[in-house]
Request: fold
Amino acid sequence: MTTKKHTATLLILMFVGLTGLVHAQMYTTIKAQVPFNFVANGKTMPAGECTIQFMVDGQTTLSITSGKQHAFAYPIVGESSKGSKKTALVFHRYGDRYFLARIKRAGRIGYDLPPSKLESELRAGNVAEEVFTLLASVE
Reply:
């Protein structure tokens, strides 16, 4: 009977520990000062403090806020062989338009946002693309 109690206790502790990990991921927040207007998931966001909150509930959802604008995005989660030393926001720039394209987390995980309709049209029109990386902080 003692072995069953120890096993049950161990399983409960593992469950509580895993629940804590998931809960911690749900409230991960990234902040950056973005000096230009940009598009996130098809919505134009104003320059200023950008806050991105990661919500994990079976699928990763990004809650992106800048000024009074808010957008949700369902990124493609990927792992890089190189990894990143710092957390950063990666934008694609076409002329004077910026599109949030990727969020790099310190480590090997990154989140790619699908291109919006407008970004796809600019690419199709062979508008020159530049990549702009902006450091961010994790809170």
Notes: The mean pLDDT is 83.
